[in-house]
Automatic annotation (TrEMBL):
InterPro entries: CheY-like_superfamily (IPR011006), NreC/VraR/RcsB-like_REC (IPR058245), Sig_transdc_resp-reg_C-effctor (IPR016032), Sig_transdc_resp-reg_receiver (IPR001789), Tscrpt_reg_LuxR_C (IPR000792), WalR-like (IPR039420)
Organism per entry: Rhizobium loti
GO process terms (BP): phosphorelay signal transduction system; regulation of DNA-templated transcription
GO MF entries: DNA binding
Name of the protein this chain belongs to: LuxR family two component transcriptional regulator
Length: 211
């Protein structure tokens, strides 16, 4: 059974999500809140397997919570619920390792499928949202990724999965300093300066016919 924290500032939707998850024996809702700040506190204290978060909450939004989760390397898989999300926000979310993005209009039908896929270690990133993210990304051809070495490509894939340099080093069996060198080389070859742009470029590359 997977533990879950829910956060949405719309009471009716929050109750609806709780009711839906009560019908799923593989999920256990530890807490539900309308406050982003409280959601962040609950995630930190309870360490759930999954956090289903509204992107737009009046105090602390889902993106800020995800940023804290990413920087703190908290062991929680984040799923965003959203009515509207810009391409830049989607690219930022992906670069910080969000595991799922679900439009609220599809939530009643698709939420359980999304949560099960994310819980199993997969991503839930609908193609129409990926397209929106890549349209906000760099204007240069994504085929520049062909300039990278095999090792640099491995590092780029892990970065786009939201891993920190330290986590990538552990996964690839090398040092954090070596990953930093690879990352600098990647930025230089692609003529970019940050993880968000790399994530958008990589998604664009994977969506291209040669990706």
């Amino acid at each position: 059974m997977y533990s879950v924290v829910l956060a949405d500032d719309h009471p009716l939707l929050l109750r609806g999500l709780q009711g839906l998850l009560k019908t799923a024996p593989d999920f256990n809702v530890l807490a539900a809140t309308a406050s982003g700040a409280q959601a962040l506190s609950l995630i930190s204290d309870l360490r759930p397997d999954l956090a289903v978060l509204d992107v737009s909450m009046p105090d602390v939004g889902g993106l800020e919570i995800q940023r804290t989760v990413f920087k703190g390397r908290l062991p929680v898989k984040v799923i965003f619920l959203t009515a509207t999300l810009t391409g830049r926000q989607i690219a930022d979310a992906i670069s910080m390792g969000v595991c799922g993005i679900l439009l609220k209009e599809y939530a009643p039908e698709a939420l359980l499928d999304c949560m099960r896929q994310v819980a199993s270690g997969e991503k839930w990133l609908p193609p129409e949202l990926v397209v929106r993210a890549t349209s906000a990304g760099p204007s240069d051809s994504p085929q520049k990724l062909d300039l990278l070495t095999v090792r640099e490509r491995e590092v780029a894939v892990q970065i786009c999965g939201g891993l920190s340099n330290r986590a990538i080093a552990q996964k690839l069996g090398t040092t954090e300093g070596t990953i930093g060198i690879h990352l600098n080389n990647i930025y230089r070859k692609l003529e970019i300066t940050n993880r968000t742009t790399l994530a958008a470029l990589h998604l664009q590359y994977m969506a291209s016919p040669n990706g």
